[in-house]
Structures are given as C-alpha cells and as structure tokens.
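Below is a concrete protein record.
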Amino acid sequence: MARLCEVCGKKWWRGKQISHSHIRTNRTWSPNIQRVRAVVDGKKVRLYVCTSCLKAGKVQRAV
C-alpha cells in the first residue's frame, strides 16, 4: 500500500524512538492513508488519500 497521499502529498517521516534507558533507534511515522473511490474530472477513480483530506472535504467520494 502506498504511504503517500495523492491529494496533499503527505508521506511518512522519520525520527528516533527513545527507550527508558535512553537507547535511540530509528523509527517512522506513517499517515493514515485510505484507498477510496473518488470522482476526478467526472470519472470514478481509486485514490490513496489521507484521512485529514477526507475530513476536510478535499476529495469528492463516488457513490
């Protein structure tokens, strides 16, 4: 599954996970990406869209 929003371009990002003993290891955060059917230029297509774009109404879902 894609980890990239096709509307806003949001993608995963990196950082460090710090344990109680302060050992630092690499980790990633992924956005909440959903595969939805949307209407684009009058056609129904499947897109990978983050939930913040869905909630903001940036995507018109196909019924």
